[in-house]
Amino acid sequence: MNSYRSNILKDFEINIKFILAGLWTSVMFCYLYGDYFELYVPDKAAGLLDGNNVLNSPMKLFLAALLMTIPALMTYLALVLKPKLNKWLNIIF
Questions:
Q1: Residue 92 to residues 7, 10, 44, 50, 85: CA-CA distances in angstroms?
Q2: How high is the mean pLDDT in each 10-residue block of the chain (93 residues)?
Q3: For a surface tag, which of 17, 27, 37, 70 has the fewest beta carbons within 10 Å of its beta carbon?
Q4: What predicted TM-score, i.e. pTM, was given to this entire model?
Q5: What are phi and psi of 46, to 5 degrees?
Q6: In whole angstroms, what is the distance from residue 60 CA to residue 13 CA?
C-alpha cells in the first residue's frame, strides 16, 4: 500500500516533439480565438460585409493566410522532422 501511494504523482518524460506540437497547436488556437472574439468589436461584421477591413487586397489576404498556415504545418512538422531541421525551423518561426 505504501509503494502504491508513492507512485501516484510521479511524472513521466514526454518527448520534446510532442511538447513542440502541443505548443504550435496552442498558437493556432490563439489565432482562432482572436479571430472569433474580434467579431464582437462594434461594426466589425459590417466592415466585413462592405469590404472595409484590413485584408482589403489579395496580397494582404495571401500574407494573412500564410501566417495562419505556419502553426498548422509546424504542428505536423514538429512530429515528423529530423531533430536538427526541427530545431532550426522552430527557432525561425
A1: 40, 34, 33, 37, 11
A2: 65 89 93 86 81 83 90 93 93 93
A3: 37
A4: 0.71
A5: -65, -40
A6: 42
